[in-house]
Structures are given as C-alpha cells and as structure tokens.
Amino acid sequence: MKRFFGNLNFSVGFALSLVVVLMAAVSLAWTPYDANKMHARDRLQGPSLSHPLGTDQYGRDILSRVMAGAVNSIIVGLVTVAIGLSIGIFLGLASAYHGQWVDEAIMRLSDFLFGFPAVLTAILITSILGPSMVNAMLAIGIFYIPVFARLTRAVAMTVWQQEYIAAARASGIREWSITWRHVLPNILSPLLIQGTIQFAVAILAEAGLSYLGLGTQPPYASWGRMLNEAQTFMATSPWMAIFPGVAIAWAVLGFNLLGDGLRDTLDPRMVRAR
Q: Which of 43, 86, 155, 202 sits most deeply, having the most CB atoms within 10 A of its CB?
C-alpha cells in the first residue's frame, strides 16, 4: 500500500474516485430530496441553503439528481467493463493459445467490431430494441470486447514464450491447464490497468449516449441527460449544466488517474524507468 500511495497519480485518482463511489453509496440510502419528484414552485432556483446546487426546470433538486446519477454511471462502468473483460479475455486467450486460423479469425472479428464505435452500435441497438440504459451498456460492452481481446492476446503471447511455460509443457501439464494456471494470472496486471481506464471511458460514453437520448431515460437521473435538459436554460440557469458537467469531469479524471497510477506501480517497465 505504501508503494501505491507513494504514487501521486494513484493517490489523487483514488481520492477523486472514492468521492464518486461514496456519493453513489450514500444516494442508495439517502438524498436530500427525492431525485425524481417534481416541485413546480421551486423550479429554476439558484444554489441556496435549501438546494445547495439549485433546482432544474421541474423543481427537482440537482444535488439529489447528481448523487443518483453517480449510481447509474458506476453501474454502467462495472457492467460494460465486465462484458468486455469476460468475453475479451476468453477470445484473447483462445487466439494466443491456438494461433493460425483461430488467431486470424478472432483478430478479424475484432477489426470488424472496431469499425462500429459505441455510439453507432447504440444507435443500431436502440433502433431495434429502443433506447434504454441496458441497451447503452450492451453497446459500450460490445465495443470493449476487441479492446480487451487484443490486449489479452498480446500479453498472453509474450507469457507463452517464457521458460516456465516450456517447463510446464515438458512436465506433461495440459495446454488449457497451463493457460488458466500460469498464463492468466500473469496477465492480470495489464488487464486491471486497462479495465480501470476503460471504466472512465464508459462513464463518459454513457453520458454522451444519454445526452443524445440513447441512454438512461426520464425520469431517472443521468449526468448526460441532465446536460441535455440544461442546454435550453444555459443563459438563465447555468448551474443546471455546470454541476453535472463537473461531476462527469471529476469521475473521468479520477478513474483515469487511478488507472495511470496502477500502470506506474504495476508495470515493471515503468518501475525500472523510475
């Protein structure tokens, strides 16, 4: 832990990310007001003691909605990274293990998926299934599969060349057993780093999709949806856009710095460079 927190990026990223996680955890049990309840008499109020971040055009408390939006952002990050990791690791390990035509087929499939960014995938899925947070998560998760598949393949092929793998083969251990017992544990560090960074990207992607109306649907709170609703009132009520925008920047910066700190600490090349 001393080695981790001795890294400035990790320390700052951990602190920023912890605030987001704690805000989401608290909002599950308590928010100053009901995040979805409208109060017509309180509409478009500026920041005050009763509403620290002001209210929106429906009189909903912005602080409560920012807190509730943190839950959606974390859920999207966790689910999309889980989809990308689980399927991407399997495909990457299979590609490195089998090689030849299997490797070629998986890499060409990855190239095909890369040709459809998350936004285009979301438009395709929502045009068929309808806009929702679940469909947005599915779109982002599909986009992440080739990201993790390529990384897994690259680091796994390096591990397969190591002497201890040759020794395991010589001792008669089956190939798939070597993959799960020796290869996978030795490639977890770069996957953890990539997963943390992609977590931040997922938050930003969800906000973008919600802004376009393809993600979380009303009345549920989403930082991107809040920005979409605020654009009409920018001249008169700028706090409606400022605070969800700050929340997005805070979360993305925190998880990006956390990923950079993990890379600096866990990557042997970075350690040797220092």
A: 202
pLDDT tens over the chain, length 274 residues: 778 888 899 999 999 999 999 999 999 999 999 999 999 899 999 999 999 999 999 999 999 999 999 999 999 999 999 999 999 999 999 998 877 888 889 988 888 887 777 778 877 887 788 888 999 899 899 989 999 999 999 999 988 888 888 888 888 888 788 888 888 888 998 999 999 999 999 999 999 989 988 888 888 999 999 999 999 999 999 999 999 999 999 999 999 999 999 988 886 555 544 5
Contact 189, 267 (CB under 8 A): yes
Burial of 273 per CB tally in 10 Å (0-12, 13-18, 19+): exposed
- The span from the CA of 261 to the CA of 7, in Å, is 6
What are the chain's domains?
9-23+54-273 (1.10.3720.10)
Residue 258 burial (C-beta neighbours within 10 Å; 0-12, 13-18, 19+)? buried
Which is it for the CA torsion 223, 58, 133, 30, positive or negative? positive
